[in-house]
Amino acid sequence: MDKKNVAYLFPGQGAQYSGMAMDLLASNAVKSLFDTASQILGKDVKELLQSDADTLKRTDVSQPAMTAASLAAVAFLGEQGFSPAACAGFSLGEYSALVCAGIIDTADCFRLIKARGEAMQKASDSLRSAGGDSAPGMAAVVGLAPEQVEELIAKWSAEGLKDLYAANINSPKQLVVSGTFSALNEAETRFKTAGAKRVIRLQVAGPFHSPLIASAVEDFRPVLESVTFHDPSIAIFSNVTGKKISSGEEAKKLALAQITSPVRWVDEEAAVADCGIEACLEVGPGKVLQGLWKDSGSEIPVFAAGTAEDIPKIGNNQ
Q1: pLDDT in tens, 92-119
Q2: Per the residue annotation, which of 27, 38, 62, 209 is the catalytic one?
Q3: Which of 34, 138, 148, 156 is at a distance of 20 to 30 A from 51, taking alpha carbons?
Q4: What letter would DSSP give residue 22?
Q5: Which domains are delineated in the chain?
Q6: CB-based contact 238:254 (threshold 8 Å)
Q7: Active site residue 230
């Protein structure tokens, strides 16, 4: 396999686990990355990565931790001779992709992620306070086509069910919805009646990629505007449009829109598959994106690339 003709796919929130990326610390490049991240964040990234599950679930913790873990895998892969021809990131993972494509540098990435995570956590906390113990969130609807889920949401909304939104179009078999606690509870019953096999609550702190967290956009905007976005050096694809990003200016606009817009991952996967790459690597914690890629039906192989154990095996089971 050509190590320079691969696409890097970066996972988003929900894939985090305590101790992620700690096995990559044998790399000097990873140590340097963690030093930079710790300086920007004002806390030891190694401690952050070893937080307990409940702490890691917080958006203002999971976003910098996941980004550090994913970029650590990039650094480790680089020492093994890998250099991607294309990249894409799922939700939060798009920021690792922005670094990978040369649109923003590592230090600015952590500045942005710190501000983004804090803004989104603040918006989520505000919603939680308004709802008491009934926290809003996200749920994966498995077994219904995304088009069917979107049609049901539109129908139910017209009938009076509010605060339920299509958030992540993950695969031909799965769509994630965002909503208030009451909307998700009601929708779970309705989706199962409509034929969904499962409705799974996600380990995230808020109803992301929906208008419910619109207040985060304005909190994040000043920090985003302060950062220079360069034109991409390799192909990179957008969650908002599902298409290739043409310029740094476009990337900056999309970064703001991404907070409340659905993640069009199915379209993004198709665009990645069409760019001539030989294989995809899931660069970061977990194996969620591998499953979604296989659901897409693409014959292009996908490999785990998030741990020191995974990376030497890339291409072995092709």
Answers
A1: 999 999 999 999 999 999 999 999 999 9
A2: 209
A3: 138
A4: G
A5: 6-126+212-313 (3.40.366.10), 136-204 (3.30.70.250)
A6: yes
A7: no
